[in-house]
Amino acid sequence: MKARYQHLLKPIVIIGLLSLLPLVSSAYAARVWTNGFMNCIMGISLSMSIAVAGVVSMGQAGFYAIGAYTAAILATRAGIGFPLTLLAGGLLAGVAGIALAFPSLRLRGMYFMLTTMAFGEVIRLVALNWTSLTRGPIGITGIPGILPGGADLGPSGYYMVALLLACATFGFCEFIASSDYGLLCRSMRDDDTAASVCGMNVPVLRISAAALACFWAGTAGAFYAHLYSFVSPDPFSGGLSLSLLVISMLGSLIGPLIARRQSFLGTAASAILLTWLLEFLRFMREFRMAFYGLIMILLVVMQPQFQSATRAISLRVRPKERSSHAS
Hints:
- By secondary structure, the protein is an all-alpha fold.
- It is built from 14 helices and 2 strands.
- A two-stranded antiparallel sheet has the order 1-2.
């Protein structure tokens, strides 16, 4: 029993340390950490759909936008409070994911990625041009905070809420990955024809995996709307989806180094690292995105070499661990 839950010790320690961070950090640092946690939510959910079901989406920014605009419209026009707007944003994004995945069942690889990328751009254009609902490029302002009456939590309060949402996403995705459902999804990912012959409902597995990833992206979007009290089409470009894909790729490389096994801790770490990297590059002004893009290109091109290095380090560590346990 002790060995079964031993892998939970490291995440618990990390969460405990992060919960104490607002006590020693500035308001500016707390806000950057909050942005990092939102990237954690979207990156972990994307990693779950890729690692468990093999569903690679390039349209996470679109589902993020659906959650944000759903929360903004419900909060400003219907007076609905934060917990319900968070749930509504996630559910509507999940429904949109099902609507996209259902007609795309026959698409694989690059073709499915291009379809999701086009969907994300369609959502951004709808938000830009449906002025009667989204107010177009002006955006929706005056979105109340997450407390009743629109009271402001402050940077530390929003930090803790974002941390809780990121922990919930991490715990849920880890549970899914280790469950019987996750085992079925991995079987489908490795060989969907063999899985179908064995009696698995491949379309349902693929659609449900996509819907779960979209749900968490929608909740992150809903939280974003309440955090900044403003939503416009600008943040939901294809560049965000590309950044999330890079976060997922980097997380798959550093995950075994952190947890000594495949874990979403790597995705969470990569989301925080890349968020702070982009913040540190602010002094470069208009060149910072070009430098950030160069880093992403190098990561994609050098991925095989990074994987080989990660595997070599893991193989060196594991024998030491075995010898220490044996002694």
